[in-house]
C-alpha cells in the first residue's frame, strides 16, 4: 500500500508530502496506480523548484518520496500541492486497498 501523508500548517496550507510504499496493483514497472502517484508527487517537486523557484527539501528513492517547503506556504505553493492532493484523493477513491491519504497538522 502507498501511504501519503499531507503535512499542513495551522492555516491548513500544505507544507510538505511524504509518500511511502508500493501500491501492489501490478508488476514492478507496470503498476499504473504507483505510476500515477509517483507522477503527481514528482510534479510537485518540479513545480515548486523549477516553476515557482521555491527552496525545498526533498528526497526520492524507490518506494519513498518526501518534499517540504523551507519557508511557509503561500497561495502559489498551495496551488501546486492542491493539484497533487486532489489527484491522490481520486486515485485513493478508485483504489482504496492500494492508496491511503492522511492529513497531518504541524
Explain the overall architecture.
Keywords: Hydrolase, Protease, Ribosome biogenesis, Thiol protease. The structure is a single chain. This protein is an alpha+beta fold and 106 residues long. It has one domain (2-105): Cysteine protease Prp (Alpha-Beta Plaits, 2-Layer Sandwich), CATH 3.30.70.1490. It has two helices and five strands; from the N terminus they run ββαββαβ. It has a five-stranded mixed sheet, covered by helices on one side. β1 and β2 form a beta hairpin. α1 runs antiparallel to α2. The longest helix has 20 residues, at 32-51. The protein is globular, with a radius of gyration of 13 Å. The two termini are 24 Å apart.
Alpha-carbon distance between the two ends: 24 Å
* Biggest sheet architecture: 5 strands, mixed
- In the predicted model, the low-confidence regions spanning at least 5 consecutive residues are none
As laid out across the biggest beta sheet, the strand order is: 3-4-2-1-5
Instruction: Just name the CATH architecture.
Output: 2-Layer Sandwich
Round the mean pLDDT to the nearest integer and report it: 96
Output the radius of gyration.
13 Å
Number of domains: 1
Keywords: Hydrolase, Protease, Ribosome biogenesis, Thiol protease
InterPro entries: Peptidase_Prp, Peptidase_Prp_sf
Protein name: Ribosomal processing cysteine protease Prp
Organism: Megamonas rupellensis
Amino acid at each position: 500500500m502507498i501511504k501519503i501523508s499531507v503535512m499542513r500548517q495551522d492555516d491548513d496550507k500544505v507544507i510538505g508530502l511524504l509518500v511511502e510504499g508500493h501500491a501492489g496493483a501490478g508488476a514492478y514497472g507496470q503498476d499504473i496506480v504507483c505510476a500515477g502517484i509517483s507522477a503527481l508527487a514528482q510534479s510537485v517537486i518540479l513545480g515548486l523548484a523549477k516553476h515557482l523557484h521555491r527552496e525545498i527539501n526533498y528526497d526520492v528513492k524507490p518506494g519513498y518520496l518526501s518534499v517540504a517547503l523551507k519557508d511557509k506556504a503561500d497561495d502559489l505553493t498551495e496551488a501546486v500541492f492542491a493539484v497533487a492532493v486532489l489527484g491522490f484523493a481520486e486515485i485513493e477513491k478508485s483504489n482504496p486497498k492500494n492508496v491511503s491519504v492522511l492529513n497531518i497538522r504541524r
